[in-house]
Amino acid sequence: MALLEEAGAEVVLRLYLKEATDLTEIAALQKALGLKAIDMMRRGEKAFKETGLSKDSKDADLRAAMLAHPILIERPIAVKGDKAVIGRPPEDVLTLL
Fold it and tell me: Which end of the chain has fewer CB atoms < 10 Å from its terminal CB, N or C?
């Protein structure tokens, strides 16, 4: 976030671990990222292992798991218009400018 602010970009922080999300928002993020659902998930989280999901799971099942367990959503995700990027490494967010 600091990198975007330093570049003069307007930043709105969305804390989806504290603020509820829905399947529509998760699907929109997936589309903006241009990724499969599995690629926007934190697969090392305990919740991922507990769900029994895998890289072969259907996107709809993975999105449902992200809704039930928001900790599974990769973060940070920067969004500008209809494009998004996962900020790992942080410098990747600058591609949105």
Answer: C
